[in-house]
Amino acid sequence: MSITLQEVEHIAHLSRLALSDEQKAKMTETLGKILNFANELQELDVENVAPTTHSLPLKNVLRDDEPRTWLTQEEALSHAPQSENGHFKVPAVMEG
């Protein structure tokens, strides 16, 4: 499959790209190669190939869910510049 200069100009227009004549010619060639490669991929027999979600056979990459000791509310608030009634106090974002 090939792509025409007019199609490259249309794509550039939709993308809001200003391309020189040299860039348009280069993009015509490059996009043509990409489309040809995509067509080659379409011809591959993948009937017996299982679908994958990842290129590597990953199992569980998450850490074990084990109980941990966390900061208490008082410890967390002790690092805050301001606190009030057991909460962080921050400047108002919107005026009501």
Automatic annotation (TrEMBL):
The record, for HAMAP family, names:
GatC
* UniProt name for this protein: Aspartyl/glutamyl-tRNA(Asn/Gln) amidotransferase subunit C
Per UniProt, the keywords (alphabetical) are: ATP-binding, Ligase, Nucleotide-binding, Protein biosynthesis, Transferase
User: Which organism is this protein's natural source?
Assistant: Tumebacillus flagellatus
Task: Using the UniProt record, name the top-level EC class of this enzyme in a single word.
Answer: ligase
List the molecular function annotations (GO) for this entry: asparaginyl-tRNA synthase (glutamine-hydrolyzing) activity; ATP binding; glutaminyl-tRNA synthase (glutamine-hydrolyzing) activity; transferase activity
Family, per the entry?
A: Belongs to the GatC family.
A Pfam family for this UniProt protein?
A: GatC
Enzyme Commission number, as recorded = 6.3.5.-
